[in-house]
Amino acid sequence: MLMSRRKQRFFKLLTYAVLLGFSVYCLLPFLWMFVTSIKPTDQIRTLNPSFWVDKPTWKHFDNVLNGSAFLTFFKNSLFVALATTVASLIISIFAGYALSRYVRFKGVKLFSVAMLLSQMIPGVLLLIPLYLVMKNLSLINTYASLILAYTTFTVPLCTFMMKSFFDTIAYEMEESAEIDGCSRIGIIFRILLPVSLPSLVATSLFAFLNAWNEFMFGFVFINDEAHRTLTPGISLFKGLYQTDWGSMMAASVLSVLPIVIIFVFLQRFLIEGMTAGSVKG
Amino acid sequence: MQKYKTYAAGYLFLLPWLIGLIFLYLSPIFASLYLSFTKYDLLTAPKWIGFDNYKTMFTDDYRLGDSIKVTFQYVLISVPFRLAFALGLAMLLNQGMKFLGVYRTIYYIPSLLGGSVAISVLWKQVFDKDGIFNQGLALMGIEGPNWIADPKYAIYSLIGLSVWQFGSVMIIFLAGLKQIPQELYEAATVDGAGIFRKFSRITMPLLTPVIFFNLTITLIQSFQTFTKAFIISGGSGGPINSTLLYSLYLYIKGFTFLDMGYASAMAWLLLIIIAAFTGLLFLTSRYWVYYSDGRN
Fold first, then answer.
1. Residues of chain B contacting residue A30, judged by C-beta atoms under 8 Å apart
2. What pTM does this model have?
3. Which of A16, A131, B260, B281 has the maximum number of C-beta atoms within 10 A of its C-beta?
């Protein structure tokens, strides 16, 4: 028995060691990103790069914030991502509600299947026709082009997340509200949404992150500095400062930081929302 | 009348979604199919050329051959590794470890940001000739190659980046593991089953639906990878086509050579490849996926 307990302790320690090792594996690149961004330029490309920084500097950050269009890109990304989030949320609340409450009706099951199938269509397949649509509507180089495209891509999964949540809410609550003369829309806003806060947060986060991280459509739809979003912005930085790793890493830190902060605070919601749709399905 | 009204409400709620679906999803899909049979350079009107694009793809485009080879290499190596990492760590975490939330957050961060350009830029720096990865190898006395610039190794830096983002898959595995009733393990322990027996007889079978879900989604996503290859190779797919993932080549054809018809045909080939793999998974699923609610 003693032996076995000792063995158990050993395995427990080993497990913690492995978990710790993988934490380092996941975080080390980010640490490197940060370290590079505060290194003086002459320490960045040396034969012996190290995590130790002699005389750290904010020069690269200053460079990015004051000497480039970074802030414009950041504002553009923020606007596009927020607009996408609001649009996706509104559409998916109603669609999710319909799918959850009217599943018995003919045709609605078909929508469910279509939504799942939509995940299989490659983004690049839609890239060319959507580019032509935006071009014909003169939407190239506008925020609207990206908001429309991103909303189209996030809505299927957002709807799925909202639907799975609405499924867990008892129908009785709505019935009594209906008897009291509450309209359908009133029911959604007064009864369902207040109790759906966790999944609303999860769904919004999902939409926001997708829009914030998307690159291909942002790169193709936007060709002018004034409307460019952050992801293509950083990639074009690369062209400008071919060897200026310091500024590139500073820009990367600044683009990644808001997401990490949001995530650390709201991760519980996102993880619950993500797993709800998948494990049951 | 009452019934008619509720019907109407149901469809009314779906209306915005339906409009988006028709105008921004279905019509573009059909437009793309039409374009795939044309020659179209954006400047002049599309010209119908029948199956010529498809013929060229199969007979006269060696770069496409390279691209498909690289894409398969990328998908077939990165997907199993990503799933294995994810499952392994989910199982370690599921043993009632302390600080579960902290580990979960840390592991998830790479997938949270994985698709973003910043990470690909960072990756280029990490896997550079003098990057920290090679520095780490140097500590162990190994001289690392130039991962990004050597056509032999370039794809592995992409695979490495993909495997690094195992977190989102892991979280779904973790949720799946939590649903396995603890009594099963207790009963097995009483019957004298060891760790490996419990794993192969309880964990694996009950987890197959989740494995199936993760495998399908990861596979579909991996076939569509674009950003990593674009950023790490500087938009070229080089050196010598070694990182020319399918979507990247399609982009180059469509937006660099302005051969929109050909690029559309390529998009349809990609859809067919993805559909074939997904279909294959679904077909084989009844032999290895076990639904405890008796669905099969």
1. 109, 122
2. 0.86
3. B260
